[in-house]
Every structure is written in structure tokens, then in C-alpha cells.
Write a structure and sequence with these properties.
Helix content is about 35%, strand content about 10%. The chain is of the alpha+beta class. Helix 3 packs antiparallel against helix 5 and helix 3 packs antiparallel against helix 6.
Length: about 180
Amino acid sequence: MGTTTDVTAEDRRFPLALAEVARVEFDYGEEGEGVDFGLYEKFCSAEATTDWLRQWTANPELDGDAYRVFGQDGNGGLAALWLARAGRPLSEQPVVFLGSEGESGVVAGSLSDFLWVLADGFGPKEAALYEERGSRPDVELAELAARHATTPRRPAREIIAEAQTEFETFSDDLDELCR
């Protein structure tokens, strides 16, 4: 099954922090200015993730082993842990967004940083796609992040920029897989 430092294709243990976030109701706002996101109660199955990735890329040769899908926005865009760091636990993998219309982007460099992004009022879609969006702190999510995060609290824009710099070719590499 793998150890805590070795993520394998079979490793689909849902992190406690995500399970707690799944119980939070995100405020979409009256004008849609809030967070458009809902978490699942567990990761999508390997089969469902592979089916989704093949449809998203129109590439029947791919498998979804590199992703742990854990939530979606109202249009069907998905948030996932991307297993980009070999031999590292799920909590140290970057969070990415893959939109329903082919948009994509890196949201945070780790699950811990993702909790701070959420606490600052950004969902995966907002973090990955809306650079001009300002902070909208959420007290409940900030308390949750304070309990689970292993990284220091920082502004979401700083976390997002750092992750996008570290994984600057994510969207281009993903586009290369499309047929």
C-alpha cells in the first residue's frame, strides 16, 4: 500500500484536513463573488479519475494515477492533488485545478498551503484562474487551517504565485497530453 513517504497508485487515503473541509459550506455569494467549490467525502476512484482524464484530454492512452481528485466547482471543474513529487506523502503534493472548459492551473504547493488559500477566501478555480481576485478571509477555514497546516499562514496570492512558479509548466505539459 505504500508508506507515509511513498505515494503509490493505490494510496487513496483521504487526509483528515480534507475530510474536515468537506464539512464546510462554501459561500458562493449573491453575485457569484464567493467560492465556487465543493469537496467530496473521499477521493474519486482510480477508474473514475482515469475516465475523467481521458475525456478531459481526449487521450485514451492516459491513466489517472498522478491525480487524487477531491472536489469540484459548479461547472464540473475538478480539484486534485497532483503526485508531482516522487516519494513524498499526499500532504506534500501540489493542488491543481482542471476546469470544465480546458482551463488548468496550480493552486498551492501542498495540502497545507491549500488550507491557507481556502482560509483567505479562494477556491481552486478562483486561485488558478482569477489573478485579480482579492482576499476574502474565512474565519472557520482559518481556524481549520490553523489546526492542520504545517506551513506558516501567508496571503493566498503569495502561496499561489510560489506554487505556479515552482510548477510553471504544469498547464503546458497537460496541454501536450491532449489529442
